[in-house]
Amino acid sequence: QFSATLRANFVLYDGACIPVSMSLGWSIDDGTQSFAQLAKCADQALYKAKAGGRDCAFIAINIDEAVPLAA
Hints:
Shape: elongated
Number of strands: 5
Strand content: 25-35%
Distance between the termini: 9 Å
Number of helices: 2
């Protein structure tokens, strides 16, 4: 729902209406990883989301695996 609300808006820049979209990547702390490891996992998930196109969200299972968030 948040994604749909976001897409319904535009940013006015230099006289042009630019559509808004987002890509999300995150990780979940299971108590076994350092903050640096969690940040790296989230970063990898974000790269996958960006590669997936507009309005994608991925969650990192671990440093080697990120899966799409179900819509």
